[in-house]
Amino acid sequence: MVQNMVMMQGISHFFKGFVLVKVPFALTNGFKQMFQRGLDLQTLETSYVSSVSWYFLVMYGLRAFFRLVIGDVPQETQESMQLQHSFGMLLNAPAGPQKFEAEKALRNEADAMEIARYYSTIDEAEKRLLGKR
């Protein structure tokens, strides 16, 4: 995460004002501020993207791909997820200790289960088409 912030600051410093990409579709003026960060041109079409904005879009757009290629999530992310999970467990914990009873839960699910009969309109298509022949 820190390396991404440093890289973005470096690109912002060295490539400020550069138009890098033109997207092949038209965008509304609401996207102008997001796609043209660092460009101070009022007359530039919205479909042109600055270098900093392109870096930002690519980094966040390819996050899942990088996770597949690189592998595990960083240690700091795992620790924060564990901390959030433990806080959630503390807030939602019942007053006394309870043990999970699998047999009881399975029995409750079996009692609540209903069997649905399968019926299709195709099953009686011949009878409806040919009648009582």
From TrEMBL:
GO terms for biological process: protein folding in endoplasmic reticulum. InterPro entries: EMC3, EMC3/TMCO1. It is found in: Membrane. GO terms for cellular component: EMC complex. Keywords: Membrane, Transmembrane, Transmembrane helix. It is a multi-pass membrane protein. Its main location: membrane. Belongs to the EMC3 family. This is ER membrane protein complex subunit 3. It comes from Proboscia inermis.
